[in-house]
Amino acid sequence: MRSHHCFTESSRMEKVINCFKRNPDAVARLICFPWAGGGSIHYARWGNVLHSCTEVFAVKLPGREGRAKEPFFQSMQQIIDEVISVLLPLLREKPFALFGHSFGAFTSFAVADALKKQHNIEPVHIFLSGASAPYSETRLQAPKKSALSDDDFLKWLISIGGTPPELLGNPDVLKLFLPALKADLHVVENYRCNKPDRPFLSCPVTCFDGRDDIPHDLQAWRDVTSGEFTVRFLDGAHFYLKDPENEKIILNYITKHLETSEMDYL
Questions:
Q1: What is the structure's pLDDT at 262?
Q2: What is an annotated GO biological process for this record, any one (predicted)?
C-alpha cells in the first residue's frame, strides 16, 4: 500500500513539477512559476546552471507541455491548491525560495500568501520579475488583454516582444499557443487581493524589471514583507530575462542570496 502511495505522490509531482536535475543533497530549492502562456523548460534548465546547493523545481500548468490535454485552470485558487498540495511536504523539509516573472510573479505571491496564512511557512527569499503588485493602482487600472480580438491580441503580443517572430507568423502554432496565454491572462485579470494591512512575510523580496518595459509599480511589493526589499533594473523590455547576459546576472544574484539565506537558516 505504501509503495502505491509513493508512486501516486511521485507521479503527481512529475505531472506538476519539471526538475531537470534531482539533487537530494541540495540545501535549498528554487520554485519557479511560468509567465502567461509559458511552459516550464526555461526555468527547469536553470537546474543545470545554478550552484549545486540549489535544486530547481519549475511549475507546469495544465493545457501545455505534458499536460496539453488537461483543461486550463480558471482561477488563481486552482493553481494555489494544486501547487501546495503537491509541494507542501517538500517545502517543510528544507529552505525554499520562489521566482516568478509577470503572471508568475502573481502566482508566486499568491502561493506565498497561502503558505503563510494556512500553513505558517514562508520562503527564505521571493524573487519577483516584470510585474506590478497585484493590489497596486497601476495593475488594477491596466486594460484587460484577454478580451481583445485575436488581431488586437497579436498586435499587443508583438509589442511586448519575447515571442519568436516565426511563431507569430505560423497560424497552426498560434492556435496552440494563444489559448494558454489567454487562459493565464484570464486568471490574472480575475485575481483580486487586498493590499496587506501589515507585512505578512519577513523574508527578503527582490524585484527585477526590464528598463524598457512599461512601468510597473514595483515599490508596492514592499508592503508584503518586513524583511529586506530590493529593486534591480536590467537592460531590455518585458522579456529582458531571456537575454543570456541578464539571465547570468539573475542566476548569480539568486545563488548569492540563497547561499547567505542558507547560512541564516542553519
A1: 56
A2: medium-chain fatty acid biosynthetic process
Domain of residue 92 covers 2-265
Catalytic annotation on 202?
Answer: no
CA distance 210 to 233: 6
Active site residue 238: yes
Report the distance separating Cα 226 and Cα 199, nearest Å. Answer: 6
End-to-end CA distance of the chain: 35
Cell 537575454 sits at which residue?
A: 243
Q: Which of 40, 238, 257, 261 is catalytic?
A: 238
Query: And the C-alpha cell for 4?
Result: 502505491
Burial 228-238, CB ≥16 within 10 A → b, else e? ebeeeebebbb
List, for residues 157-181, the tens digit of each pLDDT value.
877 776 767 777 777 777 778 889 8
Buried/exposed 142-153: b ≥16 CB within 10 Å, e otherwise: eeebbebeeeeb
**Residue 31: pLDDT band with limits 50, 70, 90:** very high
**Alpha carbon separation from 40 to 13, 14, 19, 44, 194 (Å, rounded):** 14, 12, 9, 6, 29
pLDDT single digits (tens) 40-79: 999 999 999 887 789 999 999 999 999 999 999 999 999 9
Instruction: Determine which one of 40, 102, 108, 132 is catalytic.
Output: 102
Q: How many domains does the structure of the chain reveal?
A: 1
Residue 38: CB atoms within 10 Å: 23
Q: What is the CATH number of the domain that holds 13?
A: 3.40.50.1820
- SS3 assignment, position 20: coil
